[in-house]
Design brief:
Strand order of the largest sheet of chain A: 1-2
Largest sheet of chain B: 2 strands, antiparallel
Shape of chain B: globular
Strand content of chain B: under 5%
Strand order of the largest sheet of chain B: 1-2
Strand content of chain A: under 5%
Largest sheet of chain A: 2 strands, antiparallel
Chains: A mainly alpha (314), B mainly alpha (592), C mainly alpha (113)
Distance between the termini of chain A: 68 Å
Shape of chain A: globular
Distance between the termini of chain B: 27 Å
Radius of gyration of chain A: 22 Å
Number of helices of chain A: 11
Helix content of chain A: 55-70%
Structural class of chain A: mainly alpha
Oligomer: heterotrimer
Number of strands of chain B: 2
Order of helices and strands of chain B: HHEEHHHHHHHHHHHHHHHHHHHH
Helix content of chain B: over 70%
Radius of gyration of chain B: 23 Å
Number of domains of chain A: 2
Number of strands of chain A: 2
């Protein structure tokens, strides 16, 4: 048993302990905090699994922005906890526990009994890296080989926005999402909101730019940009944009829109939909990613802001 | 129709670009409509829908001309590295059905969701979500990669959930919440199975997997989890907790789409999984299990439907029953080698899906017009509807007749094919269930029609007059469903014995009458009859005559309703979900 | 005891925990947290599968990594939509309970839904 294995076992144990605590603790706010810690530690597991791109995404979007989302909701729903009437009885709990254990065991068995001859696509991906000129294999898969999935996922993000906006009361339609935040202008939050965003924006753009050849990419960079924007909103330094703003909507469709246009260009003039001519592949992909990072940052920020609540002043 | 030739999945066929276009056109519509907003939303939808329908027709025309399915390699990367889109006969048929239903619903909703000069919430959301559902469904019907199907499933769920809560009432919000959480549980289980399959075979392409999948523990677990997750999204009994309040609470145009098309998406993926990815894996026991669930759905859904007081809830529960129908084809599709094969059982199941899509959408649209005109949709209060909205009542009647299995409807042809398959396989119990299903359908259709045709017994408050175009759209869909049996299916689905619906002899007529007569009996026994109906003396005399039998029937149905209530409690439904996963894994193991 | 074994067991346990939480916690917000737990377990499973596929001097098969990145974003948007629904439900109804009629044991003749 090497040091690395011991470290991994300890890490897995802590992660699972946090998971159990999150599930079992009575107060929702504590569960949310537990979940944020869980998300950050899972990012460490991803680093141990040698998947740094995913670790960045999990830390930024899964644990980070997801945690903020849940914390905000838990704070707003504090009063709802007092009205909980139906906790499931013992029979339900026992059968649920038994079935969960059964499924977990079946999964563990399935994973551990996977055949020794591993079929993997890593060599194929590396071998075809010439097509795009980028050396980060994950970026290649996301933007070139399985680009359709990425484009559809952008549309999923847009639909989530439409869904969240649809929950606005009719009177507030077109207005600003979320409440107007106020913070003490001399307090820590306002100070951090002035200090961090310039640094955060540089970091975010760097992570995006370096995603071409090293771990990183548009999703991770976009999440960091979104969090800087949200920091400014929560400190009251800026307000959420009104939902009916044409410019905002244009930014939200820029990512999938550019993807679609390049894809159609490939359909009409090139080899196939979403095929890149090898000479132009790198600039095309980077162009799409620039549009994508703008869209992702705006989308993630708006998803966190919530449904429109205050009607826009005319 | 998928000939397993090694070159077929490595090249794009001519006409393959149509496949991409049928996904790209709705997506482009979504983006345009989102940016333009205001009063252009409906305009964009009306521009996109004809183009998309033309593409679906083009695919229908192009498919028989090639030999084998249409294929398109996205990005010109062949699987396993890239993603392929494939259209075989099943895809083409479902694409056409989706296009037809979307057209009709768009015509119906044109009046309900017309944007004013300043942008309002409901039209903006509705038209974008309509296009999104269409794009997601097309991706499901054409996708050749399991992960693309996952993204399309999520797209479908995200588009369907806000439609449920569109009107913003508390109970619709609750229904939407339940739908979202249960659907997410389903997709996560599907994703879990995908992870295991990738771990086993290093690819998620359907054709490549079909050559590599064999009986291994991981494959069993994957198949069980994926099937159960998809069944949760299709609301097959006993996983139906979210469907009745969701479909009944949405606006009528949305209910038509939800019942008619959205549930067919996850059903289609089950078909792909069982017939294309792992045809040798499920085995006899698992197929009997899934069809047993379908049979239970038919009985359960129909009985509870008969006891409903609101029209939209009755139609929603009847959707539950009809979903059960779709799964009866699985045990009847086994070939001699013990593998699932495409034959008349598969054709019957797909035909049932198509005819249900059109007929159920027509029913919801008709119910919407009736609701708008009468101002309420209590079934006992429907009196006078026959005079006020005759076209809608006619549309309801025709779609009900189509669902009952009257020739030359699609459901009739589907039932014939399934009965043939049942006879060939010697599994007579499914034949009994099929006939029972028709009788039950007849019961609740006749119940509604009797109330609707009765004269108005009191002053009914009129809501808005329903727009004529909407009623005509419902009628057109209902007629479409009733005439489906006459279309040339042989080019797309393997129907071995040619057109079976041409003979108008005694056997056909008796088969048509059976649901009507049986339905009348069941309706009298179980239906919710209230006294002032215009024919008091004869009616009450009849009810008195069947008194004791009716009491027994009502006691049974009260038990069924009680069971439904238990099953629609969240912990119970989830426990059923996990138990089903375990049962599927066990039954798939047993077959070997 | 390689990384694959340890984290494979961890992933399976996370899936089981998430399922248990999703079934038994009555509040929708706790269900959403449990769903996220479940999702992270599934993604870890992908990661374990990818780690087994390490080859050609990359430590982890890039295709499952790409799938997980897509999945994380989709899961986040699902969480956002679900939370927006819960908040709106709380605004409208004053409580976030999911069942609109009483749990079993109550009067069965009440109309459903």
């Amino acid at each position: 048993m090497s040091i690395a294995t011991i470290f991994e076992i300890v890490l897995a144990a802590v992660v699972l302990g946090l998971g159990i605590w999150t599930t079992a603790v009575r107060e929702t706010y504590s569960a949310t905090v537990g979940f944020v810690a869980y998300g950050l530690l899972v990012a460490l597991i991803w680093v141990r699994l040698d998947a740094v791109d995913v670790a960045l995404t999990e830390a930024a979007i899964g644990g980070g922005l997801g945690g903020v989302l849940l914390l905000g909701a838990a704070a707003r729903l504090r009063n709802a906890e007092l009205m909980v009437t139906e906790t499931p009885g013992k029979v339900t709990r026992v059968s649920a526990a038994a079935l969960s254990v059964l499924i977990a065991t079946a999964l563990a068995g399935a994973v551990l009994l996977l055949p020794d001859s591993v079929s993997t696509l890593a060599p194929t991906v590396v071998a075809h890296a010439w097509a795009t000129g980028l050396t980060n294999p994950v970026t290649n898969v996301l933007m070139a080989f399985r680009a359709m999935d990425t484009m559809l996922e952008k549309v999923v993000l847009l639909l989530a926005i439409v869904g969240v906006w649809s929950l606005a009361p009719d009177s507030a339609w077109g207005g600003h999402p979320g409440p107007r935040h106020q913070a003490d202008p001399n307090g820590v939050l306002a100070f951090l909101a002035r200090l961090l965003p310039p640094i955060g924006i540089v970091v975010g753009i760097y992570i995006f730019w370096t995603g071409a050849n090293h771990p990183g990419g548009a999703f991770q960079g976009g999440a960091i940009l979104a969090s800087m924007w949200l920091l400014a909103i929560m400190a009251g330094l800026t307000d959420t944009p009104p939902v009916r703003s044409r410019r905002l909507r244009f930014i939200l469709v820029a990512g999938p829109g550019l993807f679609l246009i390049v894809g159609l260009g490939g359909l009409c003039f090139g080899a196939a939909f979403l095929a890149y001519p090898p000479a132009l592949a790198k600039p095309l992909i980077l162009g799409i990613e620039i549009a994508m990072i703008l869209t992702i940052a705006t989308t993630l920020g708006l998803l966190l802001a919530g449904a429109p609540e205050r009607s826009a002043k005319r | 129709m998928l000939a397993p030739s090694p070159t077929l999945d490595a090249t794009t066929t001519t006409g393959g670009f149509l496949l991409v276009l049928s996904i790209v056109v709705p997506v482009a519509g979504i983006l345009l409509a989102f940016v333009l907003g205001d009063r252009y939303v409906r305009l964009v939808a009306f521009a996109v829908i004809p183009i998309g329908s033309a593409i679906a027709v083009a695919i229908l025309v192009a498919l028989p001309q090639g030999n084998g399915p249409l294929v398109y390699l996205l990005g010109d990367w062949p699987p396993p590295l890239g993603i392929a889109l494939r259209a075989d006969g099943l895809s083409a048929v479902m694409l056409a059905a989706a296009a037809a239903v979307i057209c009709a619903v768009a015509v119906f909703a044109a009046a309900d969701f017309s944007p004013a000069t300043t942008e309002t919430r409901a039209p903006f959301v509705f038209w974008i979500l309509l296009l999104a559902i269409w794009g997601a469904l097309n991706t499901i019907f054409l996708g050749g990669d399991l992960f693309t199907l996952y993204v399309a499933l999520e797209l479908l769920t995200f588009a369907a959930v806000p439609l449920v809560s569109l009107e913003g009432r508390a109970e619709t919000l609750r229904a939407a919440m339940r739908y979202l959480l249960f659907a997410l549980l389903g997709s996560v289980l599907y994703l879990l199975g995908t992870a295991l399959l990738y771990g086993l075979h290093g690819t998620l392409d359907i054709v490549l997997l079909s050559r590599r999948v064999s009986l291994e523990p991981a494959a069993l677990v994957a198949a069980a989890l994926m099937t159960t997750g998809l069944l949760a999204k299709t609301a097959l009994f006993p996983l139906h907790l979210w469907l009745p309040p969701a479909h009944a609470g949405a606006p009528s145009a949305a209910s038509a789409i939800l019942s008619g098309l959205v549930v067919k998406g996850s059903f289609f993926i089950v078909v792909r999984l069982w017939f294309n990815v792992m045809p040798g894996l499920p085995g006899f026991a698992a197929a009997q299990l899934i069809a047993a669930l379908g049979g239970a759905a038919i009985v359960f859904g129909s009985v509870v439907a008969l006891r409903q007081e609101r029209l939209k809830l009755l139609i929603a529960y009847s959707t539950l029953a009809q979903i059960g129908y779709l799964f009866l084809m699985f045990p009847l599709a086994f070939g001699a080698s013990g593998r699932l094969e495409s034959g008349d059982a598969l054709a019957g199941g797909l035909l049932q899906a198509v005819s249900h899509a059109t007929a159920k959408a027509a029913m919801f649209l008709a119910a919407g017009s009736i609701y708008a005109t009468l101002g309420q949709d209590r079934i006992p209060g429907l009196g006078g509807a026959g005079r006020m909205v005759p076209i809608s009542v006619l549309a309801f009647a025709l779609s009900g007749l189509a669902l009952m299995g009257l020739p030359p409807g699609g459901a009739y042809l589907a039932k014939e094919l399934l009965l043939q398959a049942a006879a060939e396989q010697g599994q007579w119990w499914w034949a009994v269930l099929l006939q029972a299903g028709g009788i039950f359908t007849g019961a609740y259709v006749l119940l509604v029609l009797t109330y609707a045709m009765a004269p108005a017994d009191r002053q009914t408050t009129l809501g808005r007059a329903a727009p004529r175009m909407g009623e005509m759209a419902a009628l057109a869909l209902a007629l479409c469903s009733l005439l489906l049996g006459l279309m040339p299916w042989g080019a797309y689905l393997s129907i071995p014995h040619g057109d079976a619906s041409d003979k108008f002899d005694l056997a056909t007529i008796s088969k048509a009458l059976a649901p009507l007569l049986g339905g009348t009996v069941v309706a009298i026994l179980l239906g919710r009859w209230e006294p002032p109906l215009g024919y008091p003396s004869r009616w009450t005399a009849l009810l008195v005559a069947v008194g004791p039998v009716r009491r027994a029937a009502l006691a049974l149905s009260a038990l069924v309703e009680r069971g439904d209530k238990v099953l629609r409690w969240w912990p119970t439904a989830c426990i059923c979900l996990l138990s089903l996963a375990a049962l599927f894994a066990a039954s798939m193991r047993v077959a070997f | 005891m390689s990384a694959v074994t340890v984290f494979g067991l961890c992933a399976a346990a996370a899936v089981g925990l998430g399922l248990y939480g999703l079934i038994t916690n009555p509040q929708p917000l706790r269900k959403i947290i449990a769903f996220n737990l479940l999702g992270s377990g599934v993604f870890l499973l992908f990661g374990v599968v990818g780690r087994r596929g390490a080859a050609a001097s990359i430590g982890n098969d890039p295709v499952p990594q790409a799938l997980v990145i897509t999945g994380v974003v989709v899961a986040f948007s699902a969480t956002a939509l679900a939370i927006a629904l819960v908040l709106r439900l709380f605004q409208k109804a004053g409580s976030t309970t999911l069942s609109d009629d009483a749990p079993p044991g109550a009067d069965p003749s009440l109309p459903g839904g």
